[in-house]
Specification:
The chain has 616 residues and is α/β, with parallel strands linked by helices. The chain is 63% helix and 9% strand. It has a domain of 319 residues: Up-down Bundle (ABC transporter transmembrane region fold). The protein contains 18 helices and ten strands. Strands 6-7-8-3-9-10 form a six-stranded mixed sheet. A four-stranded antiparallel sheet has the order 2-1-4-5, covered by helices on one side. The chain starts with 17 loop residues before the first helix and ends in a 16-residue tail after the last helix.
Length: 616
Amino acid sequence: MRRSSSPRPPVGQPPAETHLWRTLNSLAPYLWQYKWRVLLALSCLLGAKLANVAVPLVFKEMIDGLTGEQQLLALPALLLTLYGALRFSTSLFTELREILFARVTQQAVRRIALQVFRHLHALSLRFHLDRQTGGVSRDIERGTRSISSLISYTLYSILPTLVEITLVLGILFFKYDSGFVVITLISLTAYIVFTITVSNWRIDLRRKVNDSDSAANTRAIDSLLNYETVKYFNNEEFEARRYDTQMRNWEDAATRSQISLSYLNLGQQIIIALGVTAMMWRAASGVVAGTMTIGDLVLVNAFLIQLYMPLNFLGIVYREIRQALADIERMFDLLAVNREVADAPDAVDLAPGPLAVRFEAVDFSYDPKRQILHEVDFAIPAGHTLAVVGHSGSGKSTLARLLYRFYDVGRGHVRLNGHDLRALTQSSLRAAIGIVPQDTVLFNDTIFYNIQYGRPDAARDEVLAAARAAQLAGFIESLPDGYETRVGERGLKLSGGEKQRVAIARALLKNPPLLIFDEATSALDSKTEKAIQASLDYAARGRTTLVIAHRLSTVMNADEILVMDGGRIVERGAHPALLEAGGRYAQMWALQQQEEALADAPAETPAPTPALSPAV
């Protein structure tokens, strides 16, 4: 798996600070799509903070008006009305901001999640063979949730808090002496430095929690997907112990993270307590000295509460942002994975119509240390059938993967109608190919859905016709729920033969000009194979067909047969010519005929076989 992302920081150090700006930059286009909503929401934000800061000022005038010797009764009533209006205005502007910005946030989360989903589907087969499904799914889940939190905290908390702090400091500076501003700035600086320092230290603890969580989820998903294998070997307790080991790691990491959070909270409260004490001492001294009124004392106290409440929340917000960045770090890694197979800038769509296939001196290897194909060269004229046979590991299925362009060739060319696959768009290429794979995996949905997946816009009658062509209709109609029968995770409720027939129906429904049968009847018994073979032969008429097979009886009617061994074509020709040549193909044919004869012969009582070990 190739990655272009930078390596993670050393243990104990925070991720690069550019992660925050990279995230915000990636969010900006999604947010700016609703620029008028954003601007109105920011205006409401400013209005809410102006109203919030004005409340203590009105409250001060009320106190001074009530304590004066010649106060007017109308003055407190007017101020009380203004006080109530300002309180309501704060809530009104805040809720208006939420209403205006709600769709912006959810739209951004949806589009980013979709971007990640599409990117994962665009990655090469090499990535998906290496990935661990449970860990990837948890990374995406946490990442999308954290992006929502990051937008909310950045635009709803940081900006409003900075606006409010600026307004309060300005009022304290112009209305009172600079001592209040100095105390406030010292407290703010100490609080912010302490919060950032400890939060950066905690980020490594958070990453360990995430790593342990993903590892435990991966272990659980992998074990549940292989439920039958676990049962076959009676390894339930073994799997439980492995899962518990991962959960213990998560428990230890989560405990250390929670304890460190308590230390951070205590340190913040100490700084706030010292700052509040110093401010109130100075205000009380001013009242005693006659330079400040009781209303001024109340105003300073209200400002302190108003200032330190968002300041305390700012610390929480910073911690949450750092944790959100740690949560989306893995999702950024997924987005940074290079697309090994990508469309060329000038790629063109494959024109509809019959297809001719050409492999020209193709070399290929999954790993540079082990070459799979060597100088493979053959052609399939449009409308013809070519079969490829050979022992396991000879490179047969690799031909299908290269045709689908799951990988690019190392050397040589694969062409369709004269076009190199790398010059075609992958979407148009794969739309022109239908495949029945050797290992059929179905969606955890109904039989009807799995057949219709070959062409999602197909009518019901077309789906039923495809099922009949694949010799599947009788089986489906015998089920209590018919076509609405659910097949279970990866199709485990169906037998191997039933799954393969669903795959055949799905490929027939797609109705492509190029068909690939990759061991299409390998999971079927002889009787069913013969019944389906006629359908496959019918489906191949008029289409270019590549048949990859182990059973030679299924390829007798092919226009040309290639025999592969060790990634090379060692023989080629039609079935009669290959038998007459007496080479590798003839040997394989004779061996399979002998095996079939033995299988059809009446069973004989076997001679007793010595036990491998005495029974206990």
